[in-house]
Specification:
- The protein is built from 9 helices and 7 strands.
- With about 210 residues, it is α/β, with parallel strands linked by helices.
- The protein has a single domain, classed as P-loop containing nucleotide triphosphate hydrolases (Rossmann fold), CATH 3.40.50.300.
- Helix 1 runs parallel beside helix 2, helix 1 crosses helix 9 and helix 3 packs parallel to helix 4.
- The model has no long low-confidence stretch (mean pLDDT about 95).
- It binds adenosine-5'-triphosphate and magnesium ion.
- The site of magnesium ion has 6 residues, from helix 1.
- It holds the Pfam family CbiA.
Length: about 210
Amino acid sequence: MILTVGHTKGGVGKTTLALNIAIARALAGRDVWFINGDRQETALIATTIRAEKGITPVIACAQYSDGATLRQQVKQTGGKFDDVVIDVGGRDSTALRSALTFTDALIVPFQPRSFDTWEFASISHLVEEAQSLRGEFPAYAILNCADSTGTDNEEAINALLDYPLLKYLDAPIGRRKSISTAGGKGLSVLEYTPKDAKACAEIQTLIDSIFI
Ligand SMILES: Nc1ncnc2c1ncn2[C@@H]1O[C@H](COP(=O)(O)OP(=O)(O)OP(=O)(O)O)[C@@H](O)[C@H]1O
Ligand SMILES: [Mg+2]
C-alpha cells in the first residue's frame, strides 16, 4: 500500500505519525520504504539515527522533495516494497500534489486547535482536485496531540463536517511525551522503553484502522 501523510499545515505531527506507521509496519514483518518528501530532512535523520545505532528493523529511507522525482521514483521502485510511507512537508508543495496523484490513501493529521481546523479547506481542496483527475481515494483525518480533557477535540472533529472529502478516522493520538522522545531517538513509541501502554495502544489502533 502507498500511504501519504500530508497536509498544507505545518507542525501537525506528519513526520511523527509517518515514522510510527512505517516502523509499526516493519515490526509486523512488512518490507517498508519510507520516503522523506520534504526539504526538511527530519524523517531521513530519524532513520539515519536508527541505522547508526544498529536498531532493527532497518527502515529504508529516501528523500525526494521534488514532486516529479517523487512520482517517478515511486513508480519505478515502489513496487518492490510491501508498503511505501511518504512524509510530505507542511505546505502546498509539488511533492504533496504529486503524491495525491498516485497514493492509495492520504493521512491528514490535525491538532484540536483553530489554526488547524482553518486549514481543512486547503487540503480538502487539493484532495478534490486530485480526485477530479484520478477518481476517489480515501483521505483520513487523524486527531493528533488530542487533549485529555475539555471540548476542543470534539469541536475540531465537528469542524470536519464541512469537509466531507476528509473522513474522520476514530483513532486519536494523545499528546504524549513518549511519542516525541521516541521519535528523537529514531524509534516508534512501540519500541520505546519505559513502555507507554496508552501510546502503544493508540498507534496500534491507528495502524489497524488504516490497514484493514
Ligand atoms: N502525539 C504527539 N505527542 C507529543 N508530541 C508530538 C506528537 N506528535 C507530534 N509531536 C511533536 O510535535 C512536533 C511537530 O511534529 P512533527 O515534526 O511530526 O510535525 P510535522 O507535521 O511533520 O511538521 P512539518 O510541517 O514541519 O513537517 C515535534 O516536536 C513532535 O515531536
Ligand atoms: Mg514533518
